[in-house]
Queue: 2 jobs
Job 1
Amino acid sequence: MIRRPALHSVFALWFVVGSVSHALGSAPRPADAVATGTLIIASDPVRAVVYVDGRFVGQTPIDELRLPAGDHRVRVTKDGYLENGRIVTIAANKSRAIQIRLTARGPAAPSGQSPPLKIVVVEGEDAVNIIDKKTAVKPTVEVRDRNDLPVAGASVVFLIDGGRSTASFAGGLRQLTVTTDSLGRATTTELSPLGKGAFRIQVRAAYQGQTASATIHQTNFATAAQAAQATQSSAAGQGASSAGSSGGGLSAGAIAGIAAGVAGAAVGASAFAHRDASGAQTETLNLTGAYTGTVTVSGSPGGSMAWNLRQSGTMVTGTDNGFLPPITTYNGIVSGTLSGTTLTFSISVPAGAASTPGCTINMNGTADVTNSTISGSFSGTSTCLNSLNGVFTLRK
């Protein structure tokens, strides 16, 4: 005879299991780290300039660029070719690869030749400016020669296009001329948002009879709250035009930052306030400055890095003059994003910027940062080094 469990025993078992499940499900979860995935970008032709959410990330090919999960706006440009822009969705803990074929603008450039002068927008593209806080992202550009090396002493003209009611430089000027510094960079001293809406800043560089031009797109909002309200409509509009060339609009990263609760702060501020889980400010990170230190590559010590950084909010850009054992010295471009006290970065070294002829280097990594130290690791690819995995510590 089969004995059935007493009814009260069944209910007791159900109560215990249900209570345990409820306790497990409702237990407080530790603060989740930002979910990330990786993006691989290739283009035809190669050595095209890539921006992700308005931030310069390097030149193609780009291997394993780590990004927060979600939608990101990718723009790929190259002199002599039509710009290509699209929305790319990154899944958490997944890798996605895209291949972009650029369309030549008019007659194709002779094979193997690069333009004698070019402009790379370092800061300011797709920037969000807040009128009532009088905050704006000052445009910064870098002028390079045909070997992708910075050009010092070039004359750069910034011209605000879109009417007098959009924005102005210092003194109410709409046009400003700046000479590039030793890093080939030119920055406007001041930018004031005046009226709501999108506008453009035309940039023209001249050096020894050669010229280059670029366009920077920015958007003004009356308040940070209005910028946050634009999140959904902006994402929908970008998604509808994901296959076309990109124009003005909002950086998804900037909009997300405003919506996350930084309303009222300067979107283009040079420092980033780090907060703990309760929202209390723990320290203000400002990575602008020079950092030097040692590097160990694939177990071989003796390497070095010298970073010269500029910080705008959570965005970090700059240069890296380094040595990777056993033989290669290089001049690279650093770009990264801060999340708390973690810097996710990439370093791009195009051909002609390394001591080994024809050598290209692409590094991606993460680092723990304070206002005085940067310590982390990286991996990547290179045409002149068999292996590219390293650790480093830099000090201000």
Job 2
Amino acid sequence: MWIKKALNRLFVDSLIVLPFLIRLREMKINRVMLLTPYEQWLTQRGVEFLKANSFEVVGSEHLNFTDSRDMVDMTSEQIVEWAKTKIRQNCDGVFISCTCFRGMGAAEQLEKDLGIPVVTSNQATVWYLLQLSGYSSPVTGYGALLRRL
């Protein structure tokens, strides 16, 4: 049983966590704003994780959802409107966490509106998988990260 848990953790870390850390660094995002649909305690774990990986977290905001169905139901347009009211001006970029959240669809519009890069869990994972597959053509409509393949 412990082997299965360890392999699962390794899979999650290598497929989701590593790509967003790489992309935040490559995009020169040092002062990051964290946005999540999670409860406060889980968002705080994200803040602590980012700090432990040498990022300065200038702020974090959460929606306090406890049910993943609520996360999925929120549209990209709703995420854009919510995020624009929460993002602080003193950040180099934004990280939108959660693979069950439509942040990837909000990234492009947020970058246009705010003039800073946005990295999301799903976007970083897609970038990583495309890199592994050798795909190198830009993908438009989902933010700067995927346009820079």
